[in-house]
């Protein structure tokens, strides 16, 4: 079974996402090198995981220096990886709760909506019947929208595959997009479009 959720986006946010999706039409687009994505092996950038995250730089709409692009990809992918870890991988199973902390990087209004959607956004629905979670794949590709050489929005395209053991033994795939903007100097998720399937 696959579940999806797409919250309503504000007009300004939607415009930013449309700009990202139309990157190929922008005269100022600067395409990054295929290997521009940094590693998240630095403990300050991501939690310690049993599987190494694969991070890539995607499309850049607007102009950014290579150094700025690398730092933004690292910061945005770090937010995405920490969310996925807290939501699906971390913690001692079986567990009864504690999943709301996975929404720490969500903007306040988005987090309010997401708290009613924890069955999709976390393992909350199956956690009491799971003895172990083993990650198999974790990838993040980051698109960036830059205005006047400053990043104004980013989209993290995520894919996580993991296996559960216990009363619920299955292979789960989570994928989709986390849309982010900066607030108080930190990247926050202002919208999400994720799907989760198990077999």
Overall shape: elongated
- What percentage of residues falls in helices of 4 or more residues? 10-25%
Mean pLDDT: 83
Spatial strand sequence of the major β-sheet: 1-6-5-4-3-2
How are helices and strands ordered from N to C? EHEHHHEEEE
Low confidence ranges: 1-45
Protein name: Nuclear transport factor 2 family protein
Region (Disordered): 26-48
Keywords: Signal
Signal peptide: 1-24
Describe this entry's structure for a reader.
The protein is α+β, with helices and mostly antiparallel strands. The protein is built from four helices and six strands, in the order βαβαααββββ. The protein has one domain. A six-stranded mixed β-sheet has the order 1-6-5-4-3-2, sandwiched between helices. Strand 3 (130-147) and strand 4 (150-166) form a beta hairpin. The longest helix is centred in the middle third of the chain and has 24 residues, at 66-89. Mean pLDDT is 83; it is low at 1-45.
Task: Describe the secondary structure blueprint for this structure.
Layout: E1 2-5, H1 11-21, E2 54-61, H2 66-89, H3 108-114, H4 118-121, E3 130-147, E4 150-166, E5 170-183, E6 186-198
Parallel strand pairs: 2-3
Antiparallel strand pairs: 1-6, 3-4, 4-5, 5-6
């Amino acid at each position: 079974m696959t579940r999806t959720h797409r919250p309503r986006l504000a007009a300004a946010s939607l415009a930013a996402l449309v700009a990202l999706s139309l990157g190929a039409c922008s005269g100022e687009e600067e395409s990054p090198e295929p290997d521009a994505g940094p590693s998240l092996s630095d403990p300050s950038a991501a939690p310690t995981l049993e599987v190494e995250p694969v991070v890539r730089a995607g499309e850049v709409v607007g102009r950014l220096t290579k150094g700025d692009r690398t730092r933004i990809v690292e910061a945005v992918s770090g937010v995405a990886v920490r969310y996925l870890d807290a939501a699906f991988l971390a913690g001692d199973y079986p567990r009864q709760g504690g999943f709301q902390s996975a929404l720490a990087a969500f903007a306040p209004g988005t987090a309010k909506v997401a708290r009613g959607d924890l069955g999709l956004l976390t393992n909350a629905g199956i956690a009491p019947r799971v003895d172990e979670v083993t990650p198999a794949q974790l990838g993040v590709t980051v698109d960036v929208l830059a205005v006047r050489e400053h990043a104004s929005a980013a989209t993290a395209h995520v894919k996580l595959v993991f296996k559960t053991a216990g009363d619920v033994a299955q292979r789960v795939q989570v994928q989709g997009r986390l849309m982010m903007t900066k607030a108080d100097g930190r990247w926050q998720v202002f919208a999400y479009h994720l799907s989760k399937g198990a077999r």
